[in-house]
Write a structure and sequence with these properties.
With 373 residues, the protein is α/β, with parallel strands linked by helices. Helix 1 packs across helix 2 and helix 8 runs antiparallel to helix 9. The structure holds S-adenosylmethionine. The site of S-adenosylmethionine has 19 residues, from helix 2.
Length: 373
């Protein structure tokens, strides 16, 4: 193939189109798709795969393009499993084969099919869906094709509807109203998880979030799929709505819609498994290792914290007191006996069990102390 350049991610070499996207979420182009900025997300896939994938499993990168993600997982997870790559674009299939050979991964199986057709015929233990925009077209077939206790991994880059900029699009696409708020990134992620949980429930299957996060301009979820109507029912008990009062800053989650701007129905259960994130390690062979290490630390601190977060800037506006450093405010809250953590959704975000009025009181004493220091 002409017009290719060689790049290295982790310990994997990849031939990619010369004019590849270096920045931004990446859009459809005439060439086989490759976005260097997604290296971080692929590093996380490798770290996750090292902890979760097992020998002998069938692992599919369903929308593989150059094969970057699936080949890296095959090459870097250290698991002897059956790795398979698929893309309906023949040029992508040819390029991923070349990339497989470049890394002595000639055994990796290549498909060139519509992903939905492939999923309707075969079963896998791990299915990655990394689409342009929304994954909705593939979710139903993925949850059916995934074996019991297997993992469906999916990304969504249609963030504007999910953040709350286009609530009606979110309603059409995901069956849930989104809403603009300081914690809109979190409700967007929870709408996406809720959508997958409902699709799985149709087939008497439940989901268990192993790792769901927001980064740059996308959401990514790794969800375990569990057989049984009981598992599906247990998931439905995690559904509800989320909202807040702009004046008092009070947040709520509820199983009924309290105001017409509440986001939902959405997933109110955990976003990740504490056990999995505890085991994940950002090793030095990964190109974005320092960033991975930082975000894994924040994920660990978020495990078990309540849904929805506050943003220090909102508290500053409300109290007209300039904000302390977020880390200082978090230490202040913990010293005062509150449960508090940062959040990967926002560098100025604070997760806590405090009610808004108590948090505002604490903020005032922290910010005033800060001023007199
Ligand atoms: C965003 S790219 C995937 C990027 C890749 N996972 C990576 O990490 O570089 C989406 C790919 O999905 C492929 N695609 C879109 N719809 C498809 C379908 N219905 N079946 C199979 N492949 C499809 C496109 O050809 C494109 O290569």
């Amino acid at each position: 193939m002409s017009g290719l350049v060689s790049v290295r991610e982790g310990i994997t070499d990849l031939l990619v189109p010369e004019g590849f996207s270096r920045k931004g979420p990446g859009t459809r182009t005439e060439e086989v798709f490759y976005n260097r900025q997604m290296e971080f997300g692929r590093d996380i896939s490798v770290i996750f795969g090292r902890e979760v994938l097992k020998e002998g499993q069938r692992i599919l990168d369903g929308l593989a393009a150059t094969g970057a993600r699936g080949l890296r997982m095959a090459n870097e997870c250290g698991v002897r499993a059956d790795f398979e790559l698929n893309d309906r674009d023949l040029r992508a299939a040819v390029l991923m084969k070349e990339n497989a050979e470049l890394n002595s991964l000639g055994h990796v199986r290549i498909h060139c099919r519509d992903l939905r057709a492939l999923l309707s015929e075969e079963q896998f233990d791990f299915i990655d869906i990394d689409p342009f925009g929304s994954p909705v077209d593939f979710v139903d077939s993925a949850v059916q094709s995934c074996r019991n206790r297997g993992v469906v991994a999916l990304a969504a880059t249609d963030t504007a509807p999910l953040y709350g900029a286009y609530p009606k699009t979110s309603l059409r696409r995901y069956g849930a109203l989104s809403s603009r708020s300081p914690f809109g990134h979190e409700t967007g992620l929870r709408i996406l998880i809720g959508f997958v949980a409902r699709e799985a429930a149709k087939h008497d299957r439940g989901i268990e979030p192993m790792l769901c996060y927001h980064a740059d301009h996308y959401f990514r979820c790794y969800l375990r799929i569990l057989n049984g109507a009981g598992k599906a029912d247990a998931c439905l008990r995690h559904f509800g709505y989320a909202g807040y009062d702009r004046k008092t800053l009070e947040r709520w989650t509820s199983d009924v819609r309290k105001t017409k701007t509440d986001a939902g129905p959405l997933w109110l259960g955990p976003l990740m498994s504490g056990d999995t994130v505890k085991r994940m390690k950002a090793t030095g062979d990964l190109g974005t290792s320092p960033r991975c290490g930082k975000i894994i630390d924040v994920w660990r601190s978020e495990v078990g914290m309540p849904a929805l977060f506050y943003v220090v800037d909102e508290l500053a506006r409300k109290t007209k007191l300039s904000p302390p450093k977020t880390q200082n405010f978090l230490s202040f809250l913990r010293d005062r006996g509150a449960d508090a953590s940062g959040t990967h959704f926002d560098p100025k975000g604070v997760k806590t069990d405090l009610r808004a009025k108590d948090l505002i009181k604490e903020y005032k004493s922290c910010a005033r102390g800060n001023r007199t220091r």
